[in-house]
Amino acid sequence: MKKCLVLLSHALLKKFGYYRIILFSFYFEGVAAAVMFILGPEHYYLLAFYLTTNMVIVQASFSLFNLPLADIVDADLIKHKRRSPLSSMVFGTNALFTKPAQSLAPMLVVTILNQFGYENLSNEDAQPDPSLFLGLYDAMFYLICLVPLCIAVIQILAWTPFSIQNSHVTAVH
Questions:
Q1: CA distance 26 to 19
Q2: pLDDT digit string, tens, across residues 151-171
Q3: Is the N or the C terminus of the chain less surrounded, counting Cβ atoms within 10 Å?
């Protein structure tokens, strides 16, 4: 689904550029998380819709991240008059941060959820009282809403100072 969204957004990419599209996805992620948090966990269908759209939008915008990295490589090549680009260093540095984050995030989430009784769900010997898991449900909901909200704020603050806003209309000399 995310690949279709990227293909369908070609006209938007051409008109607004990847900077604004990615920035919009950060705002969308933050606003959607705040709205879902305000609505609460009892709206299951809205929660499912939120999770689906958030996943698709985030994955689609993440697939655009090679474009700014390529622009960074091109700008560095011109600015420092290099014979060959530093593309392997730029893409390697990106992988240095993104790959461990993708690997460690699920372990961190399970560790947090275990603090609220998540490990007891797999206990087949005893059937615990469902009311014991209310804290776990709340923790899951907070993770679903507050983590994307915080990440969106950090992404917006980190993304806005860069000078790549008009990269879709300027050519590299």
A1: 11
A2: 999 999 988 887 665 554 455
A3: C
Q: Enter the DSSP assignment of 143.
A: H
Kindly write down the DSSP assignment for every residue of 23-59, as one continuous string. Answer: HHHHHHHHHHHHHHHHH-TT-HHHHHHHHHHHHHHHH
Compute the distance between CA of residue 3 and CA of residue 150 in angstroms, rounded to an integer.
Answer: 26
User: In this structure, are residues 59 and 148 in contact, taking their beta carbons and an 8 Å threshold?
Assistant: no
Q: Read out DSSP for 43-105?
A: -HHHHHHHHHHHHHHHHHHHTTTHHHHHHHHHHHHHHTT-SS--HHHHHHHHHHHHHHHHHHH
The string of pLDDT tens digits covering residues 29-61 is: 999 999 999 999 999 999 999 999 999 888 888
Q: Which residues, at least 6 apart from 153, have a Cβ–Cβ distance to it below 8 Å?
A: 30
Residue 140 and residue 41: Cα distance in Å, rounded?
9
